[in-house]
Specification:
about 425 residues, mainly beta, Tick-borne Encephalitis virus Glycoprotein, domain 1, 3 domains, 2 helices, bacterial flagellum
């Protein structure tokens, strides 16, 4: 090898070790960065000249890569919209939620929080993508393998909500010692689809021993108790008790509808559950415990909810984004998919911990968490950096020694060139 070849080789070593030190510096700087993947530098020998040639020279080149499949430590957080991926896969994100210049990208940085415009955005400024769902969590997109079915998760359009009553559970004791023909009254609450509360009256009339007739009256507004607010359709119902006070039978089934709500709400279909036949878990018939004959221990519970405002957002381990309201109602609004690639190490780094697909990574596949090779989600958690400080310091010492040695070669070659020039003179 000639003197000039030795100098050239040493310079290539300096360049390669400089790149290694740069990667080590980046790794150490990102030791606390969410979902950061450590950059490794590997060296490759370059040889010029043909086989057996006496003029062949060698050099070194450095290339870097990130181990995308290495799992970072998952740590719990107090933020409900933070989410981490355990095992394989990426979140689908975009830099343009409006879609005008939208390009889908991929990240494992799940530090999502709601911004001023209602979007879920991570610390790098990328918007989380998901499939819109119905209130039961069913994905509305017809093709879940196509990225075009995704949209940036936006919470700004979610207002308050209410839930219409569909079932009322009732427990009480009707007095066995009441005279035939006695009529006893009580009432129950129901909510319409607009969140307005109504009161429905009940009249229990004893028609024979162990037999009562239940009739329901048209609802009135709970707020004033005098204004009729709808029309009841259903009943009367015959309720028979067994000789041991348990419920014997109900004829017909205790279902009714309310139409023509004055609030403008949709018609309601309601089921009244007064207990299991043969049981004492609902309405029973025993002797009265009071000198005044009447219904006792009346308790009703209905599944409707008054109007409520949005109180928060949560993401569960199935990737379901749920809107929670202050009236106790929770509605599913988006489903988060996980994107997988046959070769995630082939992804192109865009910025920070965000990547773009290319032919080297293979085709993107969208899956529900835990399905089709996709990892699972951990709610209220973040994945940590894969950088190990001790390892990086060890690599830094090796790179520093190699760099010093290569620089010594350059210095020695320079001295030898000086000696040659002086000899010529």
């Amino acid at each position: 090898m000639s003197l000039s070849a030795a100098l050239s080789t040493a310079v290539s070593g300096l360049t390669a070790q400089s790149r290694a030190l740069s990667a080590i510096s980046e790794n150490i700087a990102n030791s606390s960065t969410t979902a950061y993947k450590t950059t490794d530098v590997y060296f490759q020998a370059l040889v010029s000249g043909g086989k057996g040639s006496s003029t062949s020279t060698s050099a070194v080149t450095a290339k870097s890569s990130q181990a995308m499949s290495v799992q970072g430590t998952v740590t719990s957080t107090s933020v409900a919209t933070n989410v981490a991926i355990q095992d394989a896969g990426f979140f689908v994100v975009t830099s343009d939620p409006a879609g005008a210049a939208s390009e889908d990208m991929y990240t494992r940085n799940g530090s999502f929080e709601t911004n001023a415009d209602g979007y879920l955005i991570n610390t790098e400024g990328f918007y989380l993508m998901g499939w819109p769902t119905d209130a039961e969590g069913n994905v509305l997109a017809s093709n879940t393998n196509d990225l075009t079915g995704l949209s940036a998760i936006n919470l700004s359009s979610i207002g308050g909500t209410a839930k219409a009553t569909t079932e009322i559970e009732m427990s009480a004791n009707v007095p066995a010692d009441a005279a035939v023909g006695a009529a006893l009254t009580t009432s129950m609450q129901m909510i319409d689809s607009l969140g307005v509360s109504h009161t429905v009256g009940q009249t229990w009339t004893k028609t024979a021993d162990n037999t009562w007739e239940l009739t329901l009256s048209d609802p009135v507004l709970t707020s004033d108790g005098t204004t009729q607010s709808g029309t009841i359709n259903g009943g009367p119902y015959t309720v028979v008790f067994n000789t041991d006070g348990s419920l014997g039978s109900v004829t017909p089934a205790l279902d009714f509808t309310v139409t023509g709500f004055s609030s403008g709400a949709a018609d309601s279909a309601v089921s009244l559950d007064i207990g299991e036949v043969g049981g004492t878990d609902g309405v029973t018939q025993y002797a009265s415990t009071s000198s005044t004959i009447g219904l006792e221990d009346v308790q009703t519970e209905q599944d409707g909810a008054l109007y409520g405002e949005l109180s928060g957002i949560s993401i569960d381990s199935d990737g379901l984004v749920t809107a929670n309201f202050d009236n106790g109602i929770s509605l599913a609004i988006y489903q988060i998919p996980i994107a997988t690639f046959s070769n995630p190490n082939g992804l192109t780094l865009v910025s920070g911990t965000t990547y773009d697909e290319n032919s080297a990574a293979g085709q993107v596949h969208l899956n529900l968490p835990g399905e089709g090779g996709a990892g699972s989600l951990v709610a209220s958690a973040l994945e940590g950096s894969t950088t190990d400080i001790a390892t990086e310091f060890n690599k830094m010492i090796i790179a520093q020694q190699a760099y010093s040695a290569a620089s010594q070669v350059v210095s020695s070659a320079s001295d030898m060139f000086d000696s040659l020039i002086q000899a010529v003179r």
